[in-house]
Write a structure and sequence with these properties.
The chain folds into two domains: about 40 residues, no CATH class; about 80 residues, Arc Repressor Mutant, subunit A (Orthogonal Bundle). It is built from six helices and four strands. The chain starts with a helix and ends with a helix. With about 140 residues, it is α+β, with helices and mostly antiparallel strands. Helix 3 packs across helix 4, helix 3 packs across helix 5 and helix 4 packs across helix 5. Bound molecules: zinc ion (ZN). Zinc ion binds next to loops.
């Protein structure tokens, strides 16, 4: 086995649905360039509405207290207005892409879950990076 065979299995996530991409032998040569998990995801790559949903999720979470969660339908309602139901799956995909980007985590029953395999209702929580200098300052007081 060569180094490239090992590298081939480094995890990748779909640019469209945000799920982990299953490694396939046919992709061994250009694994690093694989961006979508399926032909469907390639066809339905994120457009203006999808980016608006991502922005809505980030925006909604910014207005909540630390550790608070939102439901994907809140973002869908903000972007889709009366047609929000049609955007529910898109909102979930947007949330998964934000997980890949390190912006949010997805929870079920208050526990962080793997977005690639989670089934049923999910909630979205912002990832808060620890501000180390601030913490040190507080500790000294
Ligand atoms: Zn996909």
């Amino acid at each position: 086995m060569t180094r490239s065979a090992t590298r081939a299995h480094e995890p990748r996530w779909c640019d469209s649905c945000g799920r982990a991409i299953e490694w396939r032998a046919k992709w061994a040569r250009d694994w690093d360039a694989v961006r979508y998990c399926s032909d469907r995801c390639r066809r339905e790559r994120p457009g203006t509405t999808d980016r608006a949903l991502e922005a809505a999720i980030v925006e909604l979470l910014a207005t909540r207290s630390t550790g608070a969660t939102i439901c994907p339908n809140e973002a869908a309602r903000q972007v889709g207005m009366d047609d929000w139901r049609a955007l529910m799956e898109s909102a979930r995909r947007a949330a998964r892409r934000l997980v890949v980007a390190g912006r949010v985590e997805i929870t079920q029953g208050g526990v962080v879950v793997d977005p690639s395999t989670a089934r049923g209702p999910i909630r979205i929580r912002a990832v808060h990076t620890v501000d180390e200098p601030t913490r040190q300052r507080r500790r000294r007081r």
